Amino acid sequence: MIFLRRYGFHIGLLTVFALTWAWAAWQPLHPDDWLLENYLVFIAVPIVLLTARAFRLSNISYALITLFMCLHVIGSHYTYAEVPFGATLQQWVGAERNMYDRLVHFCFGLLLAYPVREVLIRLAGLRGFWAYFFPVDVTFALSSIYEIIEWQAADRVSPELGLAFLGSQGDIWDAQKDMLLAGTGAIVAMLIVLLANLWLNSRAWQEIRNSLRVPGDDRILGEVRLREWLRRRAGRQAARLEERRARRTADAER
């Protein structure tokens, strides 16, 4: 009972993802493309599971990560360019392409920016404005890194499957639009978090203002800090030389 009380929610999330992944792995539309798409799953899921004990995230973060991974494996079953819901969404918005790919990239930012924020707050100690800014910044960076990995995987692992894997659907600016959507999703997520904090935490606005003030003990870095390090190093070297001379003098007097 204690185990279920503590880990029941996580077991439920893992079960939902496992069932979704099993469905997606059963007779995918393009098996080779499915394998390429699931390299992300084979890397990300073990990382989440292995770090859960030493660095446990909130249930909200795990739920958001699970939802995104489910969206991804659904896309891998059909390929992103052929997901039925994407075709329906295409008709709704009057687009010229299957919109599932765009939806998932938007959800990349919308769903993963909060887990990124939690990690940055707990490990890097971010506060105030920076706890909203850097999750967006990191999400942009992760999205661009993923686009580069996607390009390299399509080009080197299986060039013949490249177009299906990339899901560009003839759009030469597909990667840039995907990154923009991921960033937009992250901005929306952080705005939601900001509004929630302003509503629930009376000190939230003051924390944002304080985070933008220059601390009283602030010091210039760059060449100023470099000179300090060089002086300290020179001082330590001079002290060592003086110590050696003193030892030699003492040995000579003996």
UniProtKB/TrEMBL annotation:
<dbReference type="InterPro" id="IPR014509">
    <property type="entry name" value="YjdF-like"/>
</dbReference>
<feature type="transmembrane region" description="Helical">
    <location>
        <begin position="129"/>
        <end position="149"/>
    </location>
</feature>
<feature type="transmembrane region" description="Helical">
    <location>
        <begin position="100"/>
        <end position="117"/>
    </location>
</feature>
<feature type="transmembrane region" description="Helical">
    <location>
        <begin position="179"/>
        <end position="200"/>
    </location>
</feature>
<keyword id="KW-0812">Transmembrane</keyword>
<feature type="transmembrane region" description="Helical">
    <location>
        <begin position="38"/>
        <end position="55"/>
    </location>
</feature>
<feature type="transmembrane region" description="Helical">
    <location>
        <begin position="62"/>
        <end position="80"/>
    </location>
</feature>
<keyword id="KW-1133">Transmembrane helix</keyword>
<keyword id="KW-0472">Membrane</keyword>
<protein>
    <submittedName>
        <fullName>Putative membrane protein</fullName>
    </submittedName>
</protein>
<feature type="transmembrane region" description="Helical">
    <location>
        <begin position="7"/>
        <end position="26"/>
    </location>
</feature>
<dbReference type="Pfam" id="PF09997">
    <property type="entry name" value="DUF2238"/>
</dbReference>
